[in-house]
Amino acid sequence: MSAELPILYQSDDLVAINKPHGLLVHRSPIASDASEFAVQLLRDQLGQRVYPVHRLDRKTGGVLLFALTESMNALMQQQFMDGLVHKTYLAIVRGYTDDQQTIDYPLRRDDGSGPGQGTLQEAVTHLRTLQRTEVPIPFGKHATSRYSLVELTPETGRMHQLRKHMAHILHPIIGDRPHGCNKQNKLFLAHFDMNTMLLHAQQLRFTPPGAGEPVVVTAPLQDEFERMVDSLRFSVYGLQ
Description:
Number of helices: 5
Radius of gyration: 18 Å
Number of strands: 12
CATH class: Alpha Beta
Helix content: 10-25%
Low-confidence stretches: none
Structural class: alpha+beta
CATH superfamily: Pseudouridine synthase
Distance between the termini: 24 Å
Largest sheet: 10 strands, mixed
Number of domains: 1
């Protein structure tokens, strides 16, 4: 990655970037093919150590927040655990979703092999449909294909929560593997040469420790997501 990471917000002890789709936050044994990581790239870009205070999936783009000191890292991680950080995502999903829906569906912990692995954890996601579209692309027995552009607000922060919840209500996120629809993913690859997961961390809202004023960090859509918004005939008005 030759270009610098886009910085969306920076203070004395916090910095937020617009993480590209496909970039790992940090080195992982389950992704041995990766040679670049957000932690190292941002460290080299700023010339100082950085601490990711939360995580985004490799395939997810958007707002990623880092602390610049160990003490701020601990304080911000506590805010995330206490539910004091409001997160908003955008996703393009299969089919027509309800106008609004709360998905209250416990998920099994699958983020490691330590104590608690496999146990059910409470997981809640709020969905709001922003737009719907129907495009003249045959799919199965249907002459057209239908998609929805949705806003997702997780109340909890389980691993792959949004991906699993959308699959659970039968509106999987386009480009998601393994939780999505392989047939839809193949359709997007064939028609649009697109294999990015269409999940974008659009916004974080929080009050930094020691600060009186809340901070709102918003990430513009990245190129592939924006291209699919245009290709599927959604309107980009109001999404940036």
